[in-house]
Amino acid sequence: MPTINIKLEIWRQEDSISDGIFESYNLNDISTDMSFLEMLDVLNEELTHKNLEPVAFDHDCREGICGTCGAVVNGIAHGPEPGTTLCQLHMRHFKNGETIVVEPFRSRAFKVQRDLVIDRSSLDRIIQSGGYVSVNTGGTPEGNSIPIPSQTSELAMDAAACIGCGACIASCPNGSAMLFTSAKISQLALLPQGQPERKERAQNMVRTMDLERFGNCTNEKECEAVCPKNISIRNIARLNREYLKGILTGL
Ligand code: FES
User: Fold this and answer.
1) Which domain holds residue 37?
2) Ligand 1 near 146 CB (within 6 A)
C-alpha cells in the first residue's frame, strides 16, 4: 500500500476569543487510501498519546452528504479536488514530502470556535427566515398528480444538492452567502410545492443575510468554483429575480 510523509501546518485556536496560530506536525507513513479526515484522526491519535490537545474539526457523515466537514486546505475550501468535500478528499492527491496548510473557513459571519471548528448557525437563521413551506399538506398525494417537466425538476434537484457547508462563503472575497441562499430559494421556487410564501421568501432570506453580515455578490464566481456539489451561480440570477418580483408586487 503506497504511503507518504507529510508536514502539516494547522491553525490552532483555543476558543473564539483567543488568538490563533499555525502549528507544525510531521506525519509519516500515511496511506494514500486514507481520507483527509482519517489522516487528521491519525494525527489526533498521535497527539493524544503524547498528552497533547487533539485538533478539533467538524465531521459527521464522512460521505459528502451532511455538509458538516470543511476546512481550507492549501488555500482552497475543501482542498484541491473540484466537486469534493473534505471528508471525500483522499491523501493520494498529495505528494510525498508535501507541506499541507489547513485552516478553518473564515468569514465575517463565521466565528472560529476552536481550531478548525466554526459557528455556521448564521446559515440556519437564513433558512429559518424563509427556507421552508408552511402549508398543511394532508396525506401523501399520488405521485403523478402534480406533473412537473423533467428539466424543471432537474434544476430544482441540482439546487437541492446544496449541503450548506459554507465553502462558498469562505471563498467569496465579499463573504457573500448568495450561492447558498439562492440554492435554497431555487429548490422551492422551481416547484409547485414551493409556491406558498414564494413572494416573501426571497425578501425575508436576503434581509436575514444582511443582518447576519454576509456580503453581497459581485460575480467573482469563487463560490461556484469551490462548491463540492457544483451548485451553479445561475441560481443567484434566480434569487435576484425572485427578490425583484417580491418588490414589484409590493412586499
Ligand atoms: S462529514 Fe458529512 S459532508 Fe463531510
Assistant:
1) 3-111
2) no
